[in-house]
Amino acid sequence: MASTPAAGKEAVAPASPNNSPAHVAIIMDGNGRWAAARGLTRSAGHREGAAAARRAVEGARDLGLKYLTLYSFSTENWRRPASEVRDLMLLLRKFIGDELPTLKREGVRVTIIGDKKNLDAEIKLLVNHAERETAGNSAFFLQIAFNYGGRDEIVRTAKKLAEDVAAGRLKPDSIDEALFTRSLDTAAIPDPDLVIRTSGEKRISNFLLWQAAYAEWVFLDVLWPDFDAAHFAAAIADFNARERRFGGVGATL
Ligand code: IPE
Ligand code: IPE
Ligand code: MG
């Protein structure tokens, strides 16, 4: 069998096949260590982290990206002390509340990926409001991964498809990589070309497990609150110097 299923090819199709990423996803890590180094509370670190996130959205647009995904709260972050979890929830609300008018005016479409079910009612309302208010925008796409876990997303998607099969709306045979991709929280967004993780940790921590199958990775020894335009540009330059192969043979070989 020499042929490759078309669905497989589609599923790993990059947002931008050549150099220059269209979609960058960031694991914004290191707020706690940034605060500890200054004798501040972890919450103070998260506040500075939110300011860095605001700068990253601007930076992404200045760098000519089309999509930015920010990992803000993982399905595992509920394990943190209740007061920290509460502060992170408040920060999401403040971030959306403060930024929505600008994002809306500048044509940014905002989507929250992750399981919204367990978020409190007010956050759900705000998040749905932000998505609705920006649904018609297409100048730039900002995804906030909140209560997001890659495994959780895959399981929720599998469950949804299983329900469709049980209800007779879907044939098991129609489930392929392309359909699965279209059924994820990221349905409308191409796979990330580049994932950046700050703080020096070199792990995926349950982020975009499906979508990052062929992403390039850049790990930076900078704590997230210190992340600036120069770090962002350097990560893109690193990406631009690489050759992606998607399992094929490199152009230079
Ligand atoms: C990232 O910073 C923010 C979240 C995970 C919510 P951390 O809070 O994980 O910071 P460190 O890793 O403890 O320094
Ligand atoms: C990943 O960072 C999650 C976010 C940045 C939101 P963590 O700090 O939670 O990851 P681990 O625990 O070090 O793997
Ligand atoms: Mg961390």
Describe the structure.
The chain has a domain at 23-149 and 191-240: Undecaprenyl pyrophosphate synthetase, CATH 3.40.1180. It has helices at residues 6-11, 31-36, 42-62, 82-105, 121-133, 150-166, 177-183, 229-240; strands at 23-27, 67-74, 108-113, 140-148, 194-197, 216-219. Helix 5 (121-133) links the parallel strand 3 and strand 4 (140-148). It has 253 residues and is α/β, with parallel strands linked by helices. It starts with 5 loop residues before the first helix and ends in a 13-residue tail after the last helix. A six-stranded parallel beta sheet has the order 3-4-2-1-5-6, sandwiched between helices. 42% of the residues lie in helices and 14% in strands. Helix 3 (42-62) runs parallel beside helix 4 (82-105) and helix 4 (82-105) packs parallel to helix 5 (121-133). The structure holds 3-methylbut-3-enyl trihydrogen diphosphate (2 copies) and magnesium ion. One 3-methylbut-3-enyl trihydrogen diphosphate (IPE) binds at residues 28-33, 49, 73, 77, 88, 199, 224.
